[in-house]
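Re: the 64-residue chain
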Amino acid sequence: MADDPERLVTDALRAQATSTNAGFVAHVPIAEEPPAQMSVWWILGLALMLGLAAGTVAAVITLS
């Protein structure tokens, strides 16, 4: 048996790699779905709500 720690690690890794099915993976086809598109109305509604919130914060800061 070798006393060199690097050789021991190398031998252990080589033994582990050959005892497993490393590299032999069954490929399973995955159905690709197109990404869901956001509705234009949803985006416009979100922009409107953010604008109202920013306006409210600005009004509260200005009036206080």
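Helices lie at 5-19, 40-63.
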